[in-house]
Write a structure and sequence with these properties.
The structure holds two protein chains of two kinds. Chain A is an alpha/beta fold. Chain A contains ten helices and twelve strands. In chain A, strand 4 and strand 5 form a beta hairpin. In chain B, strands 2-1-5-7-9-11-13-15-17-19 form a ten-stranded mixed sheet, with helices on one face.
Chain lengths: 278, 418
Amino acid sequence: MSAPTKIAQKRMLKIENLHVRVAGKEILKGLSLEVKAGEVHAIMGPNGAGKSTLGNVLSGREGYEVVEGSVIYQGKNLLELEPEERAAEGVFLAFQYPVEIPGVNNTYFLRSALNAQKKYRGEPEVDSMQFLKLVREKLSVLHLKDELLHRAVNEGFSGGEKKRNEIFQLALLEPKLAILDETDSGLDIDALKAVADGVNLMRSPERAFLVITHYQRLLDYIKPDVVHVLADGRIVESGGPELALELEAHGYAWVKDRVAPHMDVQVSRAQDAQERPA
Amino acid sequence: MSALLESLQLAFADAAQSKTALDQAVAIGFPGPRTEQWKYTSLRPLSARRFVAPPSALAELNAATLETLASIPGPRIVFINGNYAPDHSSLADLPNGVTFESSGTANADDDSRFASAHDIFAKLNTAIAKQGMQIHVDDSFVPEKCLQVVFVSVGTGTDLAIHYRHKITLGKNAKLALIEHHVSQDSQQHLINTLCDIALQDGAEFSHARIQQDNAGNSHFLRTEASLQSLSVYRRLDLELGAHVSRHDLQVKLLGDGAALYANGSLIASGRRHVDTRLDIQHIAKNTSCNLLWRGLATERGRAVFHGGILIEKGADGTAAHLSNKNLLLSDNAEIDTQPVLVIHADEVTASHGATVGRLDDGHLFYLRARGIPEAQAKAMLTNAFCKQTLQVLGNEDLIAQVAPSLEKALQIIEVQA
């Protein structure tokens, strides 16, 4: 029996038993996760747990070998799509380390990206006037200076500027599923707030966020609906926002101690938690 | 004697600029495979070919070429197959402070210049060339407009030996912007041999772009010799986009204190093209500087050769010399040879040089694709950006806008072929 769609949230992403190898070494070891439209999920975990691998494998980076499991995004097998197709389908990765691309003008890059996505979706492309109008709108909302547009992609940007540029791209491209890979790392408190404000402006019932972070700090500003703990390649604990606070108080060793002896039990608990209504 | 030298001796026996130099060239002969300066560019296939002198009657231009010419603004100087073409030139707005002559005056020391086999083309040029651009800018004169010079090579049914002799002199504190366009009509396999002398007096500033976009049959040999007096500035851009073989020897002598050279170039070797640029930068006076940024791209069976020679003479204290040569190797059958050479005899200098050969950066490519840009388009964007870095040397948006389309067009053709 199907529930009326108006009430039930649409499932956006379903990751099941995902095993991923990088350079021959298994990094993700049976990760399962389900995200519905409108939700903000935080993925927390110690260094080396596989957090960035998750972001990279979802966005289609080369060198990440899926050996088992599936990723269904809006009814499609995400793993079969090229990175550019995933982007056009609405998957966005805010990079942990945005690269500097000398010689490629930021405006030109952004317009090419937006129009490539529109072309893929069969929508009309925007001309330079329409694009400029759109860009100015987004810039003012995010309180960014427009000199950023005249420079090469990320070239000479400070760490904070690079991360804000990622959020600016997020605002411009309006993805359905945004993955923020340690967007808080290396940011001072002002930059962190600016980034969080940008993300909060983008929250909507149609859009989901996967916020990958090492620290609880970012979650003070971006309130998650669900918090997951990723350790040793899988989700070992899931809960509400209070889980992040517990982690902050006790450290990741606490999770390891708690879950290591009864891993199987904890995994099933984690899945229960994901299925609870948000 | 090689077929090439024999044919030139025959073709120019009665029409040589200098019979002495022609005899000397024939006596010197072509450099062998062990000659350092020609190690990566074999002259064997070329030296077995025969060429004739260009006819003095101007070749007809077709509609496409005329359209190209019309798109180039005046003041415009046009040469066709080695001969000045006044009817296609547009010198009405050549200002009074600039003089142009199409027939060359040889230097007094020409016969004694270029005694070695590795200078054979320059030697042949002094022997044969009678025409070219002789341009002089008066002291302190600053023309408003950029001067455009177009060299058209046209198929005539036979392979021609085309020789140009250029001389560009800027008086004290004079300025000049000049763009050279090298274009082809029809498919032909001419030999085009050019010698260009440039002299900048104290405080002169010369912005010079050369766009070589000949068809894939022509063989180009160019030797540029520039001398820079005190506080003069030479900005130079070479876009090597065409020809079967294109060899450029660029010698710049920084003779006056505080003279500055900015020389950039993009070497695009696609198809079966062979591009070879050899720098010989000599810091002789104090507080002189050079900034050299060269980008090479080799794809299909193309080959790009770069030699970046910088010499800092004894006493040239305060010299700042910087060379960057980066190359993109896009095919397994393509080849890139790069050799930066820095020789320092002075004490107080800052110098750096570096050369790399690589592929497109995976991280850059993924970043663009992750934003929705398809792979082929992302590669084209990165390749364009890489090759266009050199354009900034012109330091003037208007000049950059005039030369950029040629480079973009050449890169588009590569994308189609790939």
